[in-house]
Amino acid sequence: MRKLFLLALLIAPLLLRSQQAKLILPVAHTNKLEDITVSQDEKYMASVDLDGVIKFWEVSTGKLYQTFSHASAGSVVISSNNRYVISASLDQSLKVWDVESGQLFK
Fold first, then answer.
1. 3-state secondary structure at position 24
2. What whole-number distance in Å separates Cα of residue 32 and Cα of residue 102?
3. Each residue of 32-68: pLDDT tens digit?
4. DSSP secondary structure, 55-66, as one string
5. What is the 8-class DSSP label of residue 85?
6. Taking a C-beta distance cutoff of 8 angstroms, is the pair 59, 72 a contact?
7. 25, 68, 77, 96: least surrounded by Cβ within 10 Å?
């Protein structure tokens, strides 16, 4: 619940500071969030839910760029150059995703 609140705090200022009548409705997770991370430059955000669904967002617009899947993923990070999302699962596996192509590195 705390992570969902944090996600709302990240997105709410974007909606409130707009001078134009514009509504941004990001595609939300269908399950409770397991982890949320923000890129070092604070331009992007990644989130993972209890189903292992990982979403990569642009913070300023709320635009969803990619959705990945990593069963039992419990944490997610964004690389310093914003090109990769790395997820770690409870079974100690790591997956590295290319944000632009959506491809999994093996």
1. coil
2. 23
3. 889 999 999 999 999 999 999 999 999 888 889 999 9
4. EEEETTT--EEE
5. E
6. no
7. 25
Rounded Cα gap, residues 64 and 11, in angstroms: 12
pLDDT digits (tens, 9 = 90+) for 80-90: 999 999 999 98
Distance of alpha carbon 48 from alpha carbon 36, whole angstroms:
7
Supply φ then ψ for residue 8, to 5 degrees.
-60, -40
Tokens of 61: 């617009």
CB atoms within 10 A of CB 74: 15
Q: How confident is the model at residue 30 (pLDDT cuts 50, 70, 90)?
A: confident
Which of 37, 44, 27, 51 minimizes the C-alpha distance to 3?
37
Angle at 52 between CA 48 and CA 56, to 5 degrees: 40
